[in-house]
């Protein structure tokens, strides 16, 4: 896997690409008008649906008895809470072990402040996102048979065979090691404005992404299927602090504490096809030729009132969460973290996405395997390497056969 080279002149590259895409589409205004009408109807449907964030029971996944109406809701909404993925007692034990791991290695005394620009507004002495990847609880959760089953279930929503190729194996996991969040009672939530991950300007500029959105950029937006895996495994993003070297069918996290609506929790626009709106919006005549509605390299793709006011009324909170629940959203789904505080509850999670086996993911997982053995930060994250000399870090002896395969070991 190679890193995509950044254009020497980004403004010029944007202008040139927008000219080419407009010519390819033809009636750009008409295409956007069609998408806009569809999105407004979807937003109205979300507003009228008290269960717009679907809930799945882990036991139903394990027994292959998820109701059809729930399957339909996940496909339409592009998100899900899986209740009881892990036992509450297991999640609470992991939470306590993580706290002991951090305290035992004096993380508070050695923390150098946020290396990721996204979190630079936080006080360095009181992080909420911890650059920790190799604790035993994180390893145990990633390789757990319940997590494997849930990820396989989520991968099944995707069309893995199209354009004459099979794009990934939905039944095999690869690791995408990520961080943890620990938000103490009474602390302000790390609010994040609405955005999508895994590519910003890349979604217009890169040939592989243009293939992902080939129907949109051909003016046939009605044919766009957000669940089609075609070409997504061939996208390499520009180097930045928010790049992702893996194809994630779903982003996700595992709850280690209770969270309630109003605590400053995840919100999503539960419309995975909204990406067609975002892509076409940037090509309209009211947007300068060198602008992609505020998208820029090195940042997540922003979604805001200035350009995307039709979509944001659909922002929907996750339901109340218990320790052991997992929360998931399609890689294209617009999401945000609300501001808020709660004087009583922690807000603790482990970030674990679904990243099925394909050459792109396997190559990155092997790099992560080497980082694991050294206790170093994974390649997609700043090289802070706090855990290199920590005691109690997971070792290869803590890996099951599944865990070793996930890390290419």
From TrEMBL:
Protein's UniProt name: DUF1479 domain-containing protein
Annotated InterPro entries: Gig2-like, IPNS-like_sf
Domain of life assignment: Bacteria
Organism of this sequence: Amycolatopsis pretoriensis
One Pfam family cited in the UniProt record for this chain: Gig2-like
